[in-house]
Amino acid sequence: SQWGEENLQALSIQEGEDVTMNCSYKTYTTVVHWYRQDSGRGPALIILIRSNEREKRSGRLRATLDTSSQSSSLSITAAQCEDTAVYFCATDATNTGKLTFGDGTVLTVKP
Amino acid sequence: GGIITQTPKFLIGQEGQKLTLKCQQNFNHDTMYWYRQDSGKGLRLIYYSITENDLQKGDLSEGYDASREKKSSFSLTVTSAQKNEMAVFLCASSISGGSGNTLYFGEGSRLIVV
Questions:
Q1: Per-domain residue ranges for chain A?
Q2: For B28-78, how does the pLDDT look when each residue is reduced to its tens digit (9 = 90+)?
Q3: Do A98 and B35 touch (CB under 8 A)?
Q4: Which CATH number describes the domain made up of A9-110?
Q5: Which of the ends of chain B has fewer CB neighbours closer than 10 A, N or C?
Q6: Could A8 and B40 be called an inter-chain contact, meaning their C-beta atoms sit closer than 8 Å?
């Protein structure tokens, strides 16, 4: 799970396995962004889920959002080596586009 | 599509020196951001700008100045570089400041203080 002052989390799985990353946030948000950062690159948005959605899918990605517990998850089905990256959740407490990022989860997918 | 270009990719300076990072975007986006990423940590907002000539402080603005003289460019100045602020600085832009808009990031500029 990631947030606030927590250290970076790390997960290591085998190719073909499913994986879920969790994110807890401290303040109300109408949207949770999930970004992926490859080594040496800037983060890139992979999926965005709004407060009126409980689940959102995009290819092998599935995001969930539980506003009552202020938590979100990102699942990857049948992970591949190219899914190896750092994954961040981010929220927008002020509805102004100012995102607050979690500390991230380092995902390593081994062949 | 567009691109965010950050220069320089590596910036080496001495402690106490004033150092400037530059960012250009060709998305024609209104809003631009500067984030700092320390090793093993998430991103923290330093400054953002809703439109040309606008500046808003983020959570980490102390020790930094920013300038948005043109819609396409946003610069960040470290007013007095310290060794404990060696980090990667990431510039981003979004179509506007509204919630739910995608942030597009550059590849980052690494600050090294000697």
A1: 9-110
A2: 999 999 999 998 788 999 999 999 999 999 999 999 999 998 999 999 999
A3: no
A4: 2.60.40.10
A5: N
A6: yes
